[in-house]
Amino acid sequence: MTGRKIKIALCLSGEPRSSMFCFPYIYENFINLNSKIFEVDVYSYSFKSFRALSLYNCKNYFIDNRNSSDLFKDWIQPLDKKLSPKSLELLLNTSNSFMNNQNGIRNLFLMYTNIQNCFNLISSKYDVYIRARYDLMFEYPIQIEGLCSKIIEGKTDLILPELDPINKSNVGICDWYAIGNYAGISYYSNLKNSLLDLINQTTSFHPEILLSKYIKNNFNLKVEKIHLRIPLVRKSFVHSDPPHNFLDQ
């Protein structure tokens, strides 16, 4: 591509569920790359420790032991001053309490807090930045070299997975992973700063819709959407006799 090694920063963040199960998939696709072409540094930010953390051999990582509920309360209060009346009414009238709503504002705040803080762990410059969840499972190896080439050659600033357009109930961009240059991933990683404004604009707590709206707000970014389906492993089980069933975390 450039005649020198391509430096990649892999930023892992989110809920470290099924971390032992998913480690081989993330290692194969994002870390164990051609050493003659790529040099990968791993960064991790999470609200709790997990078994696979040492396997990633992170250049930098942080385990945030602060109470996530307290962080959210400090950020969201007072609601009536930060949200429009329409958004506030929608928030308080959800079938579940917004503090426990899996697709609600609390989870969005925590997810994008993780993403932003992980990106902020980086102190060096890289050619390509990859943000990914801990719970990804790839059906087959992705062509990471080709995707990185598009970033390095300036063809695009940000590559994002788009939900299946055939399923009209799922629209927008997935938060599973993102690949980009500094400008692209820097913007992507700072969605938290615009989270309340986005909710006021869309009155939605669906991450795909909010992320799609946020990306469209930046007219300067060249964004490529790809239909690369990657299963999420929300819970893994090992069929063995107790007490050896320990791989989920």
Number of separate structural domains: 1
Low-confidence stretches: 95-103
Q: Which percent band covers the strand fraction?
A: 15-25%
Radius of gyration: 18 Å
Largest sheet: 7 strands, mixed
**What's the SSE pattern?**
EHEEHHHHEHEEHHHE
CATH domain topology: Spore Coat Polysaccharide Biosynthesis Protein SpsA, Chain A
CATH architecture assignment name: Alpha-Beta Complex
Give structural notes.
With 249 residues, this protein is of the alpha/beta class. It has one domain (6-74, 106-193, 208-226): Alpha-Beta Complex (Spore Coat Polysaccharide Biosynthesis Protein SpsA, Chain A), CATH 3.90.550.10. The protein is 34% helix and 15% strand. Strands 3-2-1-4-6-5-7 form a seven-stranded mixed beta sheet. Strand 1 (6-13), helix 1 and strand 2 form a beta-alpha-beta unit. The radius of gyration is 18 Å and the shape is globular. The protein starts with 5 loop residues before the first strand and ends in a 23-residue tail after the last strand. Residues 95-103 have low confidence and may be disordered.
